[in-house]
Amino acid sequence: MESTIERHIELKAPVARVWRALTDYREFGEWFRVTLEGPFAPGQTSRGRILYPGYEHVVWEGAIQTMEPERHFSFTWAHPKSFDKANYSPDYSGEPTTLVEFRLEKISGGTLLTVTESGFENLPAERREEAFKRNDGGWAEQMKNIEAYLARQA
User: Fold this and answer.
1) What are the residue ranges spanned by the domains of the chain?
2) 25-32 vs 15-23: helix axis angle to the nearest 10?
3) pTM (predicted TM-score)
4) How far is 105 from 107, CA to CA, in rounded Å?
5) Distance CA 88, CA 107 (A)
6) 55: left (phi over 0), alpha (psi -120 to 50) or beta
């Protein structure tokens, strides 16, 4: 089984604009569909609530790793045992994490955004495949979300 997800999208927006959509917690929340409590800062944990129907009980939590302006933004996030409302626990302490990285590159007509999520091998074998499939599909949707968000903001 693969242990890394990688998605690429060409966005019709300047690098500075894409950077802001990724790293301003309010803008990130709009296209990612999460309400975050405060700004992203390296070394800090960002928390909020998922807004996707059926997942409103889920806490979004990311430990911000890197913020290299207009180049690289990354965070780690935990993978809970279950997202099912009856079995979900908002306490992620001790849960295994994966690393999410956003890389920006200036291209003709805009920005090439590459999203990579790695470290699925850190998850328990019985959860690995489901987490990978869920996030693989999730990143495909999130790439459409940021593209639509930036198009509306133009």
Assistant:
1) 15-153
2) 80
3) 0.95
4) 6
5) 42
6) alpha
**Does CATH place domain 15-153 in 3.30.530.20?**
yes
User: How confident is the prediction along the chain (154 residues), in pLDDT tens digits per residue?
Assistant: 689 999 999 999 999 999 999 999 999 999 999 999 999 999 999 999 999 898 899 999 999 999 999 999 999 999 888 888 888 888 888 899 999 999 999 999 999 999 999 999 999 999 999 999 999 999 999 999 999 999 998 7
Provide the 3-class DSSP secondary structure of residue 112. Answer: strand
Contact predicate 53/42, CB 8 Å:
no
Quote the CA–CA distance of 70 and 147 in Å, as a whole number. 17
User: Rounded CA gap, 81 and 59, in Å?
Assistant: 13
Kindly give, in sequence order, each residue whose CB lies less than 8 Å from that of residue 26, ignoring residues fewer than 6 positions away: 36
